[in-house]
Amino acid sequence: MTAVLRLATTTAGQVLGLRRFLGLVALALLPALIVYLSTGRASDASRLETFAGITVGFFFGIAVPVIALVLSTAALGDERRDQTLSFIVLRPISRFWIAAAKILAAVTAAGGVAGIGALGLGVAMGLRHGEWGYGIPLVVGAVVATAVYGAAFVPLGYLTERATLAGLAFVFILEGAVAGAIAALASVSPWRIGLSAFAAISPRGVLAFIPSFALGNVVPGVGGAILKAVVVLAAGTWFTSWILTNRDLV
Amino acid sequence: MTAPDTPPADPAVVAGATVAVNAVSKWFGQKVAVSNVTCSFGAGVTGLLGPNAAGKTTLLRMLTGLILPSEGTIAVLGTNPRHHPATYRKMALVPEENAVYANLTARALVRYSAELSGVADPGAAAERAIAAVELDDAADRSVGGFSKGMRQRAKVAAALVIDPEVLILDEPLNGTDPIQRLRLIALFRRIGDEGRTVIVSSHVLQEVERMTDRVIAMVDGKLAAAGDITAIRGAMADIPYRVKVEADDPRRLASALVASDTVRGVEFDDRGVRVETTDLRSLGRRVTVMAAELGIRLRAFRPEDDSLESVFRYLVHRR
Questions:
Q1: A21, A87, A249: which to substitute to probe chain B, counting the most B Cβ within 10 Å?
Q2: S-S: A225 plus which of A112, A197, B120, B237, CB 3.0-4.6 Å?
C-alpha cells in the first residue's frame, strides 16, 4: 500500500507542474473575480442571479471540466508520452492498484485546484452578499464533478494522444450543447452531477436562480451525487485496470 | 524454475533456465515482429544480438510482460510476470528509450524505483545502486540535464536498486562513451558472475563479445543462431563481412591489403577502403600493422551494419 500511495503522490506532483498549476488556479479563481467585480452595487436578487449564472455557466460548465480534463488526461498520458510507463507497471503492484493510484492522484490534484476556485467563489459571495455558506457546498460539488471526470479522463489519456481534444468535444458538445437541449442526457454530465450536490446543500435561495437547462432531469441531492461519483470511480478504475492488463504497453 | 531435467540439445535452450520462451510469435497487424522463437536464459550474461528491427526489443518487452505474445508462452522465474506482478520484485528492465522522469534528480529517480518495488530500506539501496554505476557526483542533478550516457547509467541504477535476480537490458550501451562502456560491461559481467540472469540486447557484435560467451542472435523476428559465440563465429566463417577502413592514403592501403590472405575483395575511393573478409579480428590486426609499416594514418575501422545483417540472414536460412 505504501508503494501505491507513493505512486499516487508522485503522480499528483508530476501532473501539477508549477506553470500548469498556476494557469489552472488562475482559471479556477476567475469566476470568483468576475462575481466579486460585477456584483458591487447589485441588489440581493441580482447578485444571486449573477452568482448562479457564473457558478453554472463558468465555474461548473467550463473551469471544473477543463481543470479535470488537463490534470486527469496527464496522469497516464504523460507517462505514455514520456515513455515512462514501463517504470511504473513493471512493479510488484497489480494493474488495478496502479489504475487506482493514477485516478486518486488525478482526482486529488483536480479536486484541489477546483476546490481553490470554489473557496474563492464562496469568499466573493461572503464579501459581497454577507453569506459565507456557499464555499463548502461549492467545494463538495467541485470535488464530486472532478471525481467523475477523473474516472473517465484518466483512461482516455492513456488510450489516445488526442485526449484533450476528445475531452473538450465531450465537455462542450455532448455536455454543453446536447445535454443542455435534451434533459434526459443531463444525468451523464459530470459537472451537472457536481452541480446537483452543490444545489442540494447550498444556502436557500440560490436554487431558484439556477437555469432549468443546467440541471435537466438531475434532481439536487448530495447523497445521490456522491453515490454516482463512487460508482463511476469504481467503473473507471476497473476499466483503466483492464486496459493496462489487456493492451500492449508500447 | 522451468528447467528441463537433462541438458537440452538445442543450443537456444539452457539447463536451469530462469527465463523460458516457448514458440513465441508476435505480430502487429500484418507485421510479424517475432516469429516462432523458442529459447531460454539462465544464470550469467546472455547477449541478444541482431541488427536493428530484428525483433529484439519486442522479445524483451514480451519477457517483461509489457506486451503480450500473439502465440506461445513466456515464463520468468516460473510465472508470466504480466499476470503475477510479484515477479517484478525479482526482475528489472532497462529500456532502450529514455524512460526517465526528467524533473527528478538521479537520486530521487533511483529511490522512487526502490519505493515502488517495496525495497526495505530504499534510501540505502539507492545509494548502493548509484555507487555501482559510479554516478555519485551527479546524483543530485536533474536527469533531464544528463547526457545520454549518464541517463543510461541512471536507468541501470534504477533497475539495480531492487537487487534483481533477472536483469533485462535493451541496448544499455547506447550513447555511452568508451570508458563508461567498459565500466558498464564490467558491471554486467560482475552481476552475471553472481549467478543472476542478465540478458543484454545489442546490435553490435563486438560489444556483446566483451560481455558474454553465450549469444542468441535474431534477424527478421526469427532466431538466427544460439549458443557459444565462438561456434556462431565459426558458422559465420563461410561468408564475408564488409568493413569500411578510412585512411589518409586509401590507394596504397588497398594495394597492400589485396595481398593479404584474410581479404576476399577490396574497393577504394577518395576517403577509404571497403574490404570483404571472413576473419574480422585478423583483418583488424593486419590493417593496424600494415598502416604502421606504410606510415598511413587510420581514421576509422568499422564493420558495415548491413554486412552483419547479411550474416544473420544467412544463419536464419541455415537453421
A1: A87
A2: A197
pLDDT tens-place string over residues B26-62: 999 889 999 999 999 999 999 998 888 889 999 999 9
pTM for the whole structure: 0.82
Q: B125 vs B315, which has greater pLDDT?
A: B125
The band of B310, judged by pLDDT with boundaries at 50, 70 and 90, is low
pLDDT tier for residue B1 given thresholds of 50, 70 and 90: very low
Question: Given a cut of 80, is residue B280 above it in pLDDT?
Answer: no
Quote ipTM for the complex: 0.86
pLDDT for the residue A178: 77
Q: Which residues of A touch B94 (CB under 8 A)?
A: none
Give the 3-state secondary structure of chain B.
CCCCCCCCCCCCCCCCCCEEEEEEEEEECCEEEEEEEEEEECCEEEEEECCCCCCHHHHHHHHHCCCCCCEEEEEECCECCCCCHHHHHCEEEECCCCCCCCCCEHHHHHHHHHHHCCCCCHHHHHHHHHHHCCCHHHCCCEHHHCCHHHHHHHHHHHHHCCCCCEEEEECCCCCCCHHHHHHHHHHHHHHHHCCCEEEEEECCHHHHHHHCCEEEEEECCEEEEEEEHHHHHHHHCCCCEEEEEEECCHHHHHHHHHCCCCEEEEEECCCEEEEEECCHHHHHHHHHHHHHHHCCCEEEEEECHHHHHHHHHHHHHHC
